[in-house]
């Protein structure tokens, strides 16, 4: 088969347009033709779930990422307020970067620790513990206080609490998102990717929007002369979303995919895992690093960027108001990207989105002087730049990470990729001021163009990596990956009969069945 034919087949397999497929909610004897026994069993299981029974596991496991968007983005507005209240102790010290970026360090720790917990114990335990940590330390952060009323002590306490908040957020990735990916298998074909995205990345983006709107509302209520309750309540209200999910997670039931394929009762063949998944993990992690490097930097510093564009940049009402408008642009890209993930497939959607984002970024950099003279035009173009990022890597990279590895090590694989992404966010937020300074400073044209030149160049690198080095994902990617991984382990002498919970092993397909499935599919 020629190279062109191979590419054509790959694209045909990963796309899923409604007019090219039968109604995914219809399943009868005719539709069983050319389906394996495992696929038939899965389709019957899908049909057995009625109404909201299909959706609650996805909601309970994925929606916790709202806290990631809210907590990480709200600190941008809080940082602006702290800089006004404490110009010497905060704005002119290392506290301004520590408070903003320390949560990313905690998130990396949480992603790695909970990746292990979710694979070796359960997704449910990981989700419950991360939820409790989030609630507790979000409340403590809002009540940060220094001994004897010390401002430096208060800022140190806020920094410490945000580190632990980061650990809670980190747990949401390998526990919640991975459970969400496995729960999405019970959706009909053609809908699985969108539901994962709508309750993971769309939740993060919705958190971005709410985190921009809340301080504006509080500013209207308290006024610009009472900023302390504004920043404290902005942080404290972040505890409400995880509280609302707690009971759903207590009632959450582990997916059969995890029960039948985990390695809780056997030794993990790490060398085999590394040989099989390391190249793929490197590509996924690098794309995630690049995306978070830009996305979180622009998100956290958006209010400061806008304050330099707005003529009356000292007017907090105006700065926060335009920041809300800017953050609203996250939603259309994320929403459309969720459906494109099903129709075009995650790999192609990521490539298209990040490629277009790079083009818009170069246009912004080139026309920055003219755009900055018109705040409305600047916010619209900046918003389009952002929404394309969400349409592409924002929506797709977590989906790809969760569906390009097998169930037994999905939590650790996803946790490592997400952790490297958050390292990118940490590096970005720490280096963002230095990039501006290196290009000439925030008061110069080149200084403000610099971040867009760098970010846009990285966008094109991500597009190349995605298109040429990421695997194509079909609607059956989760189950297919388990089939392939079991066959690979068996070929290398690993006893796959030891996989899964003891009470589920008798129900799981035999190794021979899995090998037959692989042969039928390929």
UniProtKB/TrEMBL annotation:
Keywords linked to the UniProt accession: Membrane, Transmembrane, Transmembrane helix, Transport
Transmembrane parts of this sequence: 95-118, 125-145, 151-174, 195-218, 230-248, 268-291, 320-341, 348-368, 374-392, 413-432, 452-470
A GO term from the CC aspect: plasma membrane
Entry superkingdom: Eukaryota
Subcellular location as annotated: Membrane
Membrane topology recorded in Swiss-Prot or TrEMBL: Multi-pass membrane protein
Pfam families linked: Sugar_tr
GO molecular function terms noted in the UniProt entry: carboxylic acid transmembrane transporter activity; glycerophosphodiester transmembrane transporter activity
Coiled coil: none
Listed SUPFAM superfamilies: MFS general substrate transporter (SSF103473)
Domain Major facilitator superfamily (MFS) profile: start-end pairs: 57-474
Family to which the UniProt record says this protein belongs: Belongs to the major facilitator superfamily. Sugar transporter (TC 2.A.1.1) family.
Name of the molecule in the record: Major facilitator superfamily (MFS) profile domain-containing protein
């Amino acid at each position: 088969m020629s190279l062109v034919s191979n590419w054509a087949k790959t694209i045909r397999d990963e796309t899923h347009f409604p007019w090219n497929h039968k109604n995914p909610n219809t399943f009868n004897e005719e539709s069983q033709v050319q389906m394996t026994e495992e696929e038939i069993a899965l389709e019957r299981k899908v049909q057995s779930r009625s109404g909201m029974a299909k959706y609650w596991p996805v909601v309970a496991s994925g929606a916790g990422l709202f806290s990631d968007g809210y907590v990480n983005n709200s600190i941008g507005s809080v940082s602006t307020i702290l800089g006004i209240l404490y110009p010497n102790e905060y704005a002119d010290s290392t506290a301004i970067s520590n408070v903003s970026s320390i949560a990313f360090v905690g998130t990396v720790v949480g992603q790695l620790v909970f990746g292990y917990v979710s694979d070796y114990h359960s997704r449910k335990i990981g989700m419950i513990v991360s939820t409790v940590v989030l609630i507790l330390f979000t409340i403590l952060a809002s009540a940060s206080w220094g001994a004897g009323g010390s401002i430096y002590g208060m800022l140190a306490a806020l920094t410490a609490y945000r580190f632990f908040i980061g650990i809670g957020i980190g747990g949401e990735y390998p526990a919640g998102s991975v459970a969400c990916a496995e729960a999405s298998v019970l959706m009909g074909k053609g809908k699985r990717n969108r539901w994962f995205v709508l309750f993971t990345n769309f939740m993060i983006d919705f958190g971005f929007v709410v985190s921009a709107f809340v301080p504006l509302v509080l500013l209207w209520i308290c006024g610009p002369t009472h900023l302390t309750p504004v920043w404290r309540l902005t942080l404290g209200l972040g505890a409400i979303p995880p509280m609302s999910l707690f009971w759903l997670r207590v009632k959450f039931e582990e997916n059969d995919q995890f029960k039948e394929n985990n390695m809780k009762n056997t030794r993990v063949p790490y060398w085999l895992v590394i040989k099989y998944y390391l190249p793929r993990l490197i590509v996924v992690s690098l794309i995630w690093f690049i995306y978070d490097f830009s996305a979180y930097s622009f998100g956290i510093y958006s209010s400061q960027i806008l304050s330099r564009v707005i003529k009356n940049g000292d007017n907090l009402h105006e700065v926060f108001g335009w920041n809300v408008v800017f953050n609203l642009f996250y939603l259309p890209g994320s929403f459309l990207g969720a459906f494109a993930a099903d129709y075009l497939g995650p790999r192609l959607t990521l490539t298209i989105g990040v490629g277009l984002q790079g083009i818009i970024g170069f246009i912004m950099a080139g026309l920055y002087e003219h755009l900055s003279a018109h705040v409305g035009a600047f916010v619209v173009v900046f918003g389009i730049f952002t929404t394309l990022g969400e349409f592409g890597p924002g929506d797709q990279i977590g989906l790809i990470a969760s569906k390009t590895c097998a169930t037994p090590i999905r939590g650790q694989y996803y946790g490592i990729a997400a952790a490297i992404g958050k390292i990118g966010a940490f590096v970005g937020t720490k280096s963002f001021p230095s990039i501006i300074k290196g290009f000439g400073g925030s008061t110069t044209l080149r200084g403000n163009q610099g971040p867009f030149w760098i970010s846009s160049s990285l966008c094109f690198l991500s597009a190349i990596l995605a298109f040429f080095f990421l695997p194509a994902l079909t609607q059956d990617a989760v189950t297919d990956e388990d089939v392939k991984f079991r066959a690979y382990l068996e070929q290398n002498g690993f006893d796959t009969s030891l996989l899964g919970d003891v009470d589920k092993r008798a129900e799981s397909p035999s190794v021979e069945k899995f090998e037959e499935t692989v042969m039928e599919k390929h």
